[in-house]
Specification:
Largest sheet: 5 strands, antiparallel
CATH class of the largest domain: Alpha Beta
Structural class: alpha+beta
CATH topology of the largest domain: Alpha-Beta Plaits
Low-confidence stretches: 16-20, 115-120
Number of domains: 2
Radius of gyration: 23 Å
Number of strands: 8
Shape: globular
Strand order of the largest sheet: 2-3-1-4-5
């Protein structure tokens, strides 16, 4: 009887550990990202497809009008903020505010970095950047915000005007125009090479007026 009791005790312990592990594996972190540049259902499909490279992603929701993108992911895989932001950029879009609510209740956000940039000496600058669609918007804004000193960038598809908030001691129009040319978009200051322009997706082939 004593041996049976020991065996049963071990069996119950193993069952408890297995149950705890199963509960842990079923826990999911919640992710929300404000994505700029989603102009059509094809854009949303491309974003979702890119994130499905993360095996285990579920509950994907994308609102094209607002740019809200959300999903859940197994908490034991500990998907980082940097990885999420990088994946949005790899899909060709601009990540804005991102929030992670961990299964344990902890909340992470990238807002602190944006606030730190925005709190410096900044000015608003507008300039013409030629483009055509939502993919152009994402590419243009990403090229602008990749420059040192640029905190925000907003490109208007109708007016073709890019508005940036930046530190004038670190970035100027010439630097922005140069970056635009590198990614295939003409400005009144710099023109992209024919090869770079031709390499753009067909939907991004704007009329070159400059």
């Amino acid at each position: 009887m004593k041996h049976i009791a020991i065996i049963l005790s071990i069996a119950f312990s193993l069952f408890a550990f297995a149950k705890a592990d199963a509960q842990k594996s079923n826990q999911r972190d919640q992710y929300k990202v404000q994505v700029d540049g989603l102009g059509c259902p094809f854009c949303a499909y491309g974003l979702e497809k890119k994130f499905k490279e993360f095996k285990g992603i579920k509950d994907v929701k994308i609102d094209i009008e607002t740019g809200d993108f959300s999903f859940s992911y197994p908490s034991d895989k500990a998907l980082t903020m940097d990885a999420v932001v990088s994946q949005v950029e790899k899909a060709g879009y601009t990540p804005k505010l991102a929030t992670i609510t961990r299964a344990n209740g902890k909340v992470e956000t990238n807002a602190s970095n944006s606030a730190a940039i925005a709190s410096t000496d900044v000015t608003m600058t507008k300039m013409y950047v030629n483009g055509k669609c939502g993919m152009c918007k994402a590419r243009i804004e990403k090229a602008a915000t990749s420059l040192a000193g640029v905190s925000t960038a907003e490109w208007d598809e109708k007016t073709k005007m890019l508005t940036i908030s930046h530190n004038p001691s670190k970035t100027n129009k010439e630097a922005v125009a140069s970056n635009m040319a590198k990614v295939g978009h003409d400005t009144k200051i710099a023109k992209s090479s024919d090869a770079t322009y031709d390499a753009l997706p067909a939907c991004c082939h704007y009329k070159r007026a400059i």
